[in-house]
Amino acid sequence: MTLLEVRGLNTYYGESHILRGIDITINSGEMVCIIGRNGVGKTTLLKSLIGLLSPRTGEIIFNGEAIRKRPPHQRAKLGIAYVPQGREIIPHLTVEENLQLGMEALSEGLKKHSSIDNFIYELFPILKAFLGRKGGDLSGGQQQQLAIARALLGKPKLLLLDEPTEGIQPNIIQDIESAIRRIISETGIGVLLVEQHLHFVRKSDRYYAMQRGGIVASGQTRDLSKAIVDQFLSV
Amino acid sequence: MVQLILESLFNGIAIGSVLLIAALGLAIVFGLMGVINLAHGELMMLGAYSTYVTQLVFKLPALKPFYNSYVIVSLMVAFLVAAVVGILLERSIIRRLYGSPLETLLATWGVSLILQQFVRSVPLAYASGIIIALLIGLIVPLIVPHDLLSHRRNRLIKVGSLGGSVLVGLLSANWLSTSISRLGRASARNVDVTAPSWMRGGLDLWGITFPVTRLVIIVITIIAVISVTWFLKQSVWGMRIRAVTQNREMSECLGISTKKVDVLTFGIGSGLAGVAGVAVSLLGSVGPNVGGSYIVGCFMVVVLGGVGNLLGTIIASFAIGIMTDLIGAGRLLSIWPDMPSPLASTVDFFATTSMARVLVFALIVVFLQFRPSGLFPQKGRMVES
After folding, report:
1. Number of continuous H segments (helices) and E segments (strands) in chain B
2. CA dist., res. A223 & res. A211, Å (int)
3. Which of B3-17, B331-345, B348-362 has the lowest mean pLDDT?
4. What's the number of domains chain B is made of?
5. Of A77, A87, A127, B48, which is the most buried if we count CB atoms within 10 A?
6. Does A104 contact B246 at a Cβ distance shorter than 8 Å?
7. Which residue of chain B has the CA closest to A51?
8. CB contacts, 8 Å: B256 with chain A
9. Any domain includes B171
């Protein structure tokens, strides 16, 4: 089932044209990866999808509903969760409060939901030990796990992940990978991933390659040849 | 000697209390938009004027038996009045200026001038009418059931409630100006709020007389500080406010409506200014410029205490209050009568309210040279990022 359909999306920063006519689709239960070198507009695309940037033209259809004009908090409530580059943990809130904020996206939000579902601790056991700490005091890898856990607590239909492995030690990358695969197989959500880490890219089902703000190649990840990898991934 | 020190401490704490309530509101708003709201002092002034109007209303024959409780009612009235004006200010002006601090500063200063002139040239009865209309206009959309608003004729309901609130505002303005003639005329002169009988006089303890008015102000402050802290730390909206204050974009992405948080935060911050205004009206006479004399003090409290730190705000406001009182009332001389004469003449020179303020601010400036981020700077890993 098509979860997200993007047609002819054009986003500008001021007068500079960043995204040029992007077309992508994501189905439920599928992990889709966006690859491309630095500065080709991958993060801009995710920001346009969550609504932090407003595309000038184009369509974003999520779950059958056109959402291009909606503010980010409404998109979150519809079921899009965003894990930005740099994690963006709320620094002076405790880990527990950060997790609770993830449930704001559920219907009736924080007013109704305040207890954290145990499956989060199964995925990321470390968070349970740090519940009372301030989010800003965690290490980068721990913050990344917290950010993903926070996104999952909103029971999203679509998860947007921006470079989840950037600057993180290898064993935590493993944890994050297996957590994401497990979530997809258990809940059937769609995941859109921006990634430079080849190992993680190989874990996804399909890929789109970006260059100068446009999609230039796409296909099944298992067909991803070495030539394409060399062309689009900066290793 | 001990009595003198205690008395001076008490007075300082009473002055500091007013600063504390106002600075608390200022700090909440400052945390949200990163800019000092220069109209905050004028919101205090509005709070003080609403105390005056409430008091006059309670002098009417129908409410005369309840006259003694007008201070408590006026606390709520002042909170609402200041909150409504603050929300209006946020929605109409400041919302358009998020991210441009200098323009916000200028715009709020402009608003403060407008508000000052407004109370000079508009009769208080009509000012009250406008506020009542605004209040109803803001509240009606909140209490009307949701399905009624999503109805096909929702525009009719909106127009109806708008018309209704204007009508109620007009009627109440008319009623106020006919029944209390003093409110029907514009006046730039200062007005005085008389404390009810139970607040006059003093409480004698250990041979010192504590004026009841000041005790009441301190109690109001304690209640305000506790309830604001509770609200921010424990309630759901408090958590949303803290999240938006620290990371606006991410909070929005998590599903928090930052627009609603802005309105609420502004409402509470401004409402606290209104409550501080009640205290101001109990301490002295009320005029259009009364806010200006407090705004600088509040600003100093926020800077000295360290931004976003409650304990710092409390200590800073009491410190400023006590120092102003010690220096301004020339109490140092009465505590230490045989001070050497060059020192004594210096102390005497600063023993007026305005000179005391000059000295206190000079001391703060010196202090900030050594600790630029205030008494209690934020610590930890997140500071560097």
Report:
1. 17, 2
2. 19
3. B331-345
4. 1
5. B48
6. no
7. B253
8. 73, 101, 104
9. no
Distance (Å) from the alpha carbon of A170 to chain B's nearest alpha carbon: 23
Is A109 in Cβ contact with B246 (below 8 Å)?
no
Say yes or no for a CB contact (<8 Å) between A73 and B255: yes
Flag if B247 and A136 touch (Cβ within 8 Å). Answer: no
Assign 3-class secondary structure to B162-189: HHHHHHHHHHHHHHHHHHCHHHHCCCCC
Position of tokens 């009595």?
B3
**Residue showing tokens 């105390």:** B51
Task: Could you please state the CATH topology (level 3) that the domain comprising A2-232 is classified under.
Answer: Rossmann fold (3.40.50)
In a domain, B240, yes or no: yes
Q: Is the dihedral of CA B263, B264, B270, B274 positive or negative?
A: positive
Subunit contact A90:B256, Cβ cutoff 8 A: no
Of B239, B256, B308, the CB nearest to A73: B256
B254 and A CB contact within 8 Å: yes
Q: Per-residue pLDDT tens for B137-166?
A: 777 777 766 666 666 667 777 777 778 888
B309 contact partners, CB below 8 Å, separation of at least 6? B374, B375, B376, B378
Model confidence pLDDT, tens digit, residues A21-49 = 999 999 999 999 998 888 888 999 999 99
Is the pTM here over 0.90, yes or no? Answer: no
Of B243, B257, B382, the CB nearest to A101: B243
User: Is the Cβ pair B247, A50 closer than 8 Å?
Assistant: no
ipTM of the assembly?
0.90
What is the CATH number for B89? 1.10.3470
Centroid of chain to Cα B154: 36
Q: Domain of B280? A: 2-122+186-376
Q: Which residue of A has its CA nearest to B382?
A: A136
pLDDT digits (tens, 9 = 90+) for B225-245: 999 999 988 899 999 999 998
Residue B162 lies in a domain: no
